[in-house]
Design goal:
The chain folds into two domains: 19-285, Aldolase class I (TIM Barrel, Alpha-Beta Barrel), CATH 3.20.20.70; 295-331, no CATH class. Helices cover 42% and strands 14% of the residues. It has 14 helices and eight strands. Strands 1-2-3-4-5-6-7-8 form an eight-stranded parallel beta barrel, surrounded by six helices. The longest helix is centred in the middle third of the chain and has 18 residues, at 194-211. The mean pLDDT is 93.
Length: 333
C-alpha cells in the first residue's frame, strides 16, 4: 500500500459496501453534552449510555472533563466536569468490557499533574488533550505527562478555522514530535466546507503518516455538515471518529452517532442499541435541553464565529430575533 492517501486505490481505501478495520469510533455525548447542563447528568443516564456503547460495539466513550477545581468551583458543576475516579467507578465499576474510557483535559484548565492518576490506578484508558494554538507548549507537556503515566493520548487542536496556516503548520510539526497517538482535526465553529476539510485532512496526514500517528475528526453541525464532513475525512484516511447520540452537544451539536454507525459497514457496530437509547432517554432529555441545527447557529457557522452569541439569543426572551442577530453579528466580522 502506498503511503500517499491520494494515490491509494479504491480497493485500498475501501468502498461503499466494505469497511475499514482501522476505524475507531468515540462517543463524546456526555462530555460534549455536558456543556449544556454544567455536566449534571444523572448517574442512571450515564450508566445507560455506557451499556449502550458496549452493546453497540463502540470503541471509546468519553465521560467528561478533568477540570481544575481551583478554576471551576465544584458547587457550580456536576461530577462529569471533573471525572474523579470514585465517580467513574460508581458508574462502570472496573469496566470489564471492551469499551475503552476517556476524558478530555483542557490546556491551562486542568491540574493534570495531580488530578490525572497513573493509568495503573485508574479505570480510564485514554486522555484527550484539547488546546488552542497559543497553548501548544502546555498541551505538549500534558501529552507527555499522560503518556508517561501509561495512557493512550490524543490531541484536539481547536478552532483551526481561525488559525493562520503557518501557525497551524508549526503546531502540527511540534505535535508530530510528541508521543501523542492521534491528532484530531476539529471544526469548532462548524464553519468548514468539504473542500476545506479535504485540504486540511491532507495537511494533517502529511504529519500523522510521517510520524506513525492516527488522524481523527471532530465536527460541529452549525451548517448541517457535521456528518458529511466526517465522511469526507473518512474517505481521505481519518480513522478516529467522534460522534454523539442524536448529535447531542452544545449549540448545533455534533456528528450524530446513529448516522455514522449506519454509514460504517463494520459488522462489529450495532445500530439498534443506539436507537433504543435515543427512544428511551434522549426524547425525555429534549424536554429540558435544547440542541441541534438552528438559524442562529447557521449564521455563526457561515461567519466563522464561536456560537456563544447564538446560544445566548436562543436562551433569551427574544429567540426569534434572527434578522437583528444577523445584522448585529455581520457588523462584527
Amino acid at each position: 500500500m502506498t503511503d500517499n492517501p491520494e494515490q491509494r486505490t479504491a480497493e485500498e481505501k475501501g468502498s461503499w459496501v466494505t469497511w475499514r478495520p482501522e476505524i475507531n469510533v468515540l462517543d463524546c455525548s456526555i462530555r460534549d453534552g455536558g456543556l449544556m447542563n454544567d455536566h449534571r447528568f444523572e448517574d442512571g443516564l450515564v450508566r445507560e449510555l455506557h451499556q449502550t456503547c458496549v452493546a453497540a460495539g463502540i470503541d471509546y466513550m468519553e465521560l467528561g472533563y478533568k477540570a481544575s477545581k481551583r478554576i471551576f468551583a465544584p458547587d457550580g458543576f456536576g461530577a462529569w466536569k471533573y471525572c474523579d475516579e470514585d465517580d467513574i467507578r460508581r458508574i462502570v465499576g472496573d469496566n470489564p468490557t471492551n469499551l475503552k474510557l476517556s476524558v478530555m483535559a483542557d490546556a491551562e484548565r486542568t491540574d493534570y499533574h495531580e488530578d490525572i492518576l497513573p493509568a495503573a490506578d485508574s479505570v480510564l484508558d485514554m486522555v484527550r488533550v484539547a488546546t488552542y494554538i497559543h497553548q501548544i507548549p502546555t498541551a505538549i507537556d500534558m501529552i507527555e505527562d499522560a503518556h508517561q503515566k501509561g495512557y493512550e493520548t490524543t490531541v484536539n487542536l481547536m478552532a483551526i478555522s481561525v488559525v493562520q496556516e503557518n501557525d497551524l503548520d508549526d503546531a502540527l510539526e511540534a505535535l508530530g514530535k510528541t508521543d501523542v497517538s492521534t491528532i484530531y482535526l476539529v471544526d469548532s465553529f462548524g464553519a468548514l466546507y468539504s473542500e476545506e476539510i479535504q485540504a486540511l485532512i491532507r495537511k494533517y496526514l502529511a504529519i500523522t503518516e510521517a510520524t506513525g500517528k492516527q488522524l481523527g475528526i471532530h465536527t460541529h453541525n452549525n451548517q448541517q455538515l457535521a456528518f458529511a464532513n466526517t465522511i469526507e475525512a473518512i474517505v481521505l484516511g481519518a480513522n478516529r471518529l467522534d460522534a454523539t447520540v442524536a448529535g447531542l452537544g452544545r449549540g448545533a451539536g455534533n456528528c450524530p452517532l446513529e448516522l455514522l454507525i449506519g454509514f460504517l459497514k463494520n459488522p462489529n457496530y450495532r445500530l439498534r442499541p443506539i436507537l433504543q437509547f435515543i427512544e428511551r432517554d434522549l426524547v425525555r432529555l429534549r424536554e429540558t435541553m435544547r440542541w441541534g441545527y438552528e438559524i442562529p447557529y447557521m449564521i455563526t457557522g457561515q461567519l466563522n464565529q464561536h456560537p456563544r452569541e447564538a446560544i445566548r439569543l436562543l436562551e433569551s426572551d427574544e429567540p426569534g430575533a434572527i434578522v437583528e442577530f444577523f445584522d448585529t453579528t455581520i457588523e462584527q466580522v
